[in-house]
Every structure is written in structure tokens, then in C-alpha cells.
Design a protein that fits this description.
42% of the residues lie in helices and 12% in strands. It is of the alpha/beta class and 380 residues long.
Length: 380
Amino acid sequence: MAHQKPKPQVVDIHTHMYPPAYISILSSRDTIPLIRRFPSSPDPRLILLEAELPALEAALHDPTAPLPGRPLTKHFSHLSQKLHFMATQKIDISVLSLANPWLDFVSPLEAGQAADQVNGSFELMCTARKGSRFFFFGTLPLSAPLPTILASIDNLKRLPHCRGIIMGTTGLGAGLDDPSLLPILKALATAHLPIFLHPHYGLPNSVYGPRASEYGHVLPLALGFPMETTIAVARMYLAGVFDAVPALRMILAHSGGTLPFLAGRIESCVLHDGKLATVKRGRTVWEVLREQVYLDAVVYSEVGLRAAVEASGGAERLMFGTDHPFFPPVGGEAGDGEEGKWESVRLNVEAVDKALGEGSEEAGMVMGGNAVKVLRLYEE
């Protein structure tokens, strides 16, 4: 009797949680990011974006006003709910990470300790349930002095389930093309800890126009987040960061923003810019994308996924993600039983199946095989 091939594992590399220590930090704050409770909501509200400030101000003065932010449900903080979500969505392994805005806002004196607490919490989550399959991306105290950040990287190297770090686009405050960030990038490369790059700050609210409040979160999330990632990576390329740290590996959230569509335009502008014509060039944008960059597959469409595959050089450079617990089903608590099917997850799975062929080797690579290999998810 012929042996059946084992079913490929499904790995979610883009899945967030807020440990209790982090929730406590956000609940104590008076400026965004913050958590606030309202009498009309059974769950506290998480306010992350500048675009949510007008709604927060209105709700604080008018109990009948629409509530700001999003409900901080058990999906954000309960490991049992994460396991339930994984079972419902048929996910075998999750690589957990703190959601934005990480520790960017924490004072320099407190950031190191906060990072140790958050990273320690994630390591405990990975070992809390026997038989469960968790790994995590750590968080760095980027507002702290350089020695504290480097010590945090050394600590992360010793945590058995850490497989990289999650980072925003501001770096130490001046962006990812800041020369002061290079020692940190080199330390991460030496430690074999890839960066999962995730947006948070978006674009200035003014670009969305005076009617932006009528459109919910669509403009900052659908457009602002992807453009933030695109600009950050383009700045890194123009500054020569990838050539300066050739061992650096990055995973870009949301399929690299608009890079799959704009990489050619960036390359053309570099070639035709008189200011850059005399500067010795390293590799092209395309070469960097295909040698040092991976993309998650959180793009929600077959068209977008095909572009991501082409831009990155093949299906072996994409990894599946859900962005849980963001983008839940609209209306009521999600995740219980069959009615808990998340549309956001379905769209990403269908994009992989349609673009690469359901059950194909390439689809299996994106859904889990690549993550297992690149992030060493078979080692503990």
C-alpha cells in the first residue's frame, strides 16, 4: 500500500497578541496609543491611530457618540482564543508578535525592562500549552540607549522560541535609513534574527481630505499602511542599507505594501536622477527584493499575490499570514464555531489557491513550507 504524502503544515507568520504587561502600559496613557473603557462597551477600546483622535474626543464628552478605535476582545490577549482561532482556521503553527506600535512610545529608562517583560511573556506563551506550536518575533526597546538595545538582542538569541523581531518604520525615530540604526541591523543579522517590518504611522491625515472621517479606517489602513512600508524600504535602498548589511533579512508585512507594483518605477527614477547618476550603485531594487527580502501573503487578492510572487522572484519568498486579531467578522464576537470564519483569512487563502493552484507545491510553500524553512520552525 502506497504511503500518502503528509499534509503540508499551515503556518501563520502574521498574528498578533497583547500580553497583560503591554495592556497595562496602554491603559495608563493619556496620549495615543492608549486603551480606554466606556460604559456602553463590554470591552475596553484600543485607540492606535491619529485618525481616531476626533472620535475619541467626541466619545469622552458625549456618551451617545460612536466609540473610537476597536474593541480589545479576548482575541488580543487570551492564548486559549488564539488556539481556538487556529483550530477554526486550520492553522498548525503561529509565529506570534506584539501588534503596533510595539515599544516605540516607551520612555528610554523604561523601554529595556518593558522589552524583557514582553519578550518573556511571549516565550512563556510558546511553552504554556503542551503540544501547541508557537514561536514568536521579539520586540526591541528602540527608544533606549544603544547598549540596552544590543543587550535585548542578546537576550532574544537565548530564548528558544524567538525567530526574529518585529519592527516599525521609524527605527530609532529618524527612519530605517538612519545611520545610527546600522549597529542594530548588523547585530540582528549576526544573530540570524530577521526583521518582520510592520507599518503603524501611515501618512499624514491631511492627505485623506476633509471627508476622511466618513470613510472609517479604509484610507489609513488600505492606503496609508502600504505606502508607509513602501517608503521605508525605498529609503533603506537609496541609503545603501542593504549593501551595508548584506546578511540582513526582512519580511515585509502586507506583501510589501506597493513595492511589487512600484519597484520598477523606483528603479527607473534612480537611473534617470541626475543627483544619483554619479553615485556608485550596488544592486538593483529587484536584486535586493529577491536576495534579502521576503513578503507575507496578506494581500487579499489573486492579482496582488501574483504581483508579489513576480516581484520577489518566486513563490519560495512568500509566507502566509492572517493579521489576526485585526479585521474580524463584522457584527458580534468572532471565532466561535463555523460562524466564526474570518473573511480576511478566507480571502488570503483563496488568493494563494487561485494564484498558485490549490494543492500545488508552490501553494504549499507559501502556506507553510517557506516559513518552516526560513524561520527554522522545526527547531526548539
